[in-house]
Amino acid sequence: MRPSQAETDASEDTAPEPDQPDGPEPVKTTSRYDANQRRRRLWATATGLTVGGLAYFLTLLDYSTKLTRTANSLGYASNFFDFQGRAFLEGRLDVPRGSLGIEGFIIGEKEYMYFPPFPSIIRLPVLMTTHEFDGKLTLLSMGLAFVLLAVMTSRLVWLVRDCMCGDAEVTRYEAVSVAVFLALATGGSVLTYNASLPWVYHEVYAWAVPLVIGAMYWMIRVQREPSRWTIGWLAAFSLCAIMTRTTGGWAVCLATIGLGAWVLLRRPPAHQRPLCWGVIAAGAVPLLAGVAYNWVKFQHPYLFPLEDQVWTQVNTHRREALDANGGTITGPQFFSTAWTSYFRPDGIRFVDYFPWITLPAEPVKPVGGAFIDQSYRTGSVPAFMPGLFLLTCAALPALLGRRLHHEIRMLRAPFVAGLLVTGGVMAYGYFAYRYTCEFVPMLVIGGAIGQTAVTAWLDSHRWLLKSVGLAVLAALTGFSIAANMLTGYTASALTRGGASLERYLEVQEKLSGPEQLDLVRKTDSYPTGGKTDEIRIVGDCDELYLNTGDTYEPWKLIQRRGTVVTVTVDPEVKPKRVPLIEVNTELKRTVWLDTNRRHQARIVIRSERGLQRGQWFTVPPPYQLSVGVLDKPELGHAEVQSTPGGFVGYVRTFDWDSNWVAQPTTIEIVESGRQQALKAGISIKRGVGLAPALCTRLQAATADSDQ
């Protein structure tokens, strides 16, 4: 910690003054200079955050105006923090049994969520007043998290600049460079990709990253201006960080404790020692709070018992991974795989069709014999965030020099904190692109240091070199923003499926044309094999699929032709129940026709939940009715209705495979029901469902291109 202001003033009072000429002192004209500096800083900050904010919020809203949208149509995993918040209001930590699905941890008779509670706590004011927004607050929460990201990142960038450049004037060139960097830091990282999916897995990172960045900022402030105020803010950010994401929270707390201990060991003046102990407490108290919260739930300082998770009970591969790794999926055995997946220079894929930039074609593969838990297509840090990565590399000489100004040395502690954050993901046997968020705090502070050093060097050279350097930074910023926005748009469509995925392919159709047709193939049965992004038409547009490239759901159903039967009823029909259409899940789901003595009919759905009965209706001459089952892939259910009669209900159209991954099932007419129907005076004929429009266009265009 540097000397206090009082000590500085005292030393200045006792220092000998140089000889000065007689006469009055020259008039200082600092007001105009200071105003000019403030304008440049304000312009740079506003411009950079506007560009970064546009990228983030367009992705978060999925180019719509729906403020309550969720990652998938059913809202699963977008309501976990709401369940936890409701539990807090009832005075307990456990959530209702079954509310978390496969993510729940069953301890005794209670179910717990493994995520820390901060995103639940900030929901409490809303949850205390209404139930209307339950399960709909994730997008708003992630939007609020970006505001914190913008504030703390801009403050950190300018603080780093002041530590490295002192009171030097902010030049126009430097202001433009800072504006570009702020756009890169707030809109050109994986956080923009994360914004595409408003659910719990991404919400925690939306908050964890700015909280860690905020803690970094206050680490520097504590060293420059040690006081109860700065220490209090550091403690607050440390507490919020550990109550949001364990890895980031532990890193910040340990770095804070280390900072206080380091200064204390250097024997500061007696009046500063209480402040050093205060810094240690600012890390230790939040750390103990995080340990206590996790201990109450799982009897462990920071881990959670994976053997008690519902997913472990239903997924064979998870159980095999735990057995192979000694009951855990963390450890140094995963470092080689993590290093290869997160830092490979080719961890990106360029294609000649929309979206042009996308994730690698294959999921992460284990390295060095590691038995990993799960892996998805994963982009790398240098490929998707090249500007931040290169600037962080440029920061290392500025941080590791021997004879550094004491204010530059102040930047080491927060940089070490950012480095510690990455330790958890580098030793974790689960690989997905969202986990590169763990690197963002280190990249932001490293990038800020590198940007300041490189800009200062360029600013001392001729305009040509300065222009080239700024153009390169702007190009890398534009690329990172575009790459994460485009990849996020794809992720949103794939996760929601159904109509969203249909719209995605329609955009691809308009922007790519012939290049999209090269992806289209025809088959007579459920697709197997294939390549990432391949489009399969089954039969005569009976079904349309997209290859996701992932292991767990390689083929995503986009559209399915409706299943229709035409039923002719004898005017004197007898009371009868006849099966019409069957959904071939493990437990059969059947659509029936009921008739009664009053010569009326109705449609009934039979499933494991019992019966869904439609309304009785009279069949008008010529005594025919149509019954249709139209699949809604985004819901995993089909809509059942009849004409006349109207809507009846929904029936599930997917089943779980051996690894508890959802797979679409077939929908067929019950052939055996025809003979039963004839005896009751009912004839059943297969109708022709309307072919999906997108599939029809693709099929026609493919046929034309083949001629």
Mean pLDDT: 92
Question: Segments where pLDDT lies below 50 for 5+ residues?
Answer: 2-29
Kindly estimate the percentage of residues that lie in beta strands according to DSSP.
5-15%
Whole-number radius of gyration? 31 Å
Biggest β-sheet description: 6 strands, antiparallel
Q: Report the structural category.
A: alpha+beta
* First-to-last CA distance: 77 Å
Number of beta-strand segments: 23
| Overall structural domain count | 3
| Approximate helicity band | 40-55%
Global outline: elongated
Report the oligomer: single chain
Q: State the helix count.
A: 26
Ordered list of secondary-structure elements with their pairings:
Elements: H1 5-14, H2 30-60, H3 80-89, E1 105-107, E2 110-112, H4 118-121, H5 124-127, H6 138-165, H7 172-187, H8 190-194, H9 200-224, H10 228-242, H11 246-265, H12 273-298, H13 310-314, H14 316-324, H15 335-343, E3 349-350, E4 357-358, E5 374-375, H16 381-384, H17 386-400, H18 406-409, H19 412-421, H20 423-426, E6 430-431, H21 440-459, H22 463-496, H23 498-512, H24 514-517, E7 520-523, E8 535-538, E9 543-547, E10 555-560, E11 563-569, E12 576-583, E13 589-595, E14 600-607, E15 610-613, E16 617-618, E17 624-632, E18 637-643, E19 646-652, E20 654-656, E21 662-664, E22 667-669, H25 672-679, E23 682-686, H26 693-706
Parallel strand pairs: 5-6, 7-8
Antiparallel strand pairs: 1-2, 3-4, 8-9, 9-10, 11-17, 11-23, 12-13, 12-22, 13-14, 14-15, 14-16, 17-18, 18-19, 20-21
Helix pairs in contact: 2-6, 2-7, 2-22, 6-7, 6-9, 6-21, 7-21, 7-22, 9-10, 9-11, 9-19, 9-21, 10-11, 10-12, 11-12, 11-19, 17-21, 19-21, 22-23
